[in-house]
Amino acid sequence: MSDAHKLKEHLWDRMSDSPFMMLGLTGSGQHSEPLTVQLDKDQVDTLWFFVGKDNRLAGGGAAMGQFVSKGHDFFACFAGRARIDNDPAMIDKLWSTTVEAWFPGGRSDPNLALLRFDIDEAELWEADVSLTGKLKMLFGGRIRPSEEGSHARVETTAK
């Protein structure tokens, strides 16, 4: 299995385990913000977020997202486009009690918006330092590239 394929598999497992990331519009001059990803296993290269209509991302456009796994050993940077897509079927599919905590009016909350982020490309890193590499780090030795982990730049996050 290639590094890229392995990294793609690990990406979705890690995001399911800790679905939080930073997302921001490129060129807007505004900072990225933390959001909870709503994953839909049926849609490759698409991430979903429930946001308020007044959220700075609601205007859409070119965007970048960054993800760090719970264990801080997997990293991803996504480039793509964000836009509001208030498809009622997707809202129903992704809705949960956690989302409802943020939108007390439920699915018909007047401030509810479903933000769609379509990934054009991604860069993925997984730190998988070997035992030998960990010992070298502990005692100040030099880590060889074969001991660093995996990295890939991909045009799709499909497995």
TrEMBL record:
Residue ranges annotated for the General stress protein FMN-binding split barrel domain, each copy included: 8-130
Name of protein: General stress protein
InterPro entries xref list: Split_barrel_FMN-bd, Stress-Dev_Protein, YdaG_split_barrel_FMN-bd
Superkingdom of origin organism: Bacteria
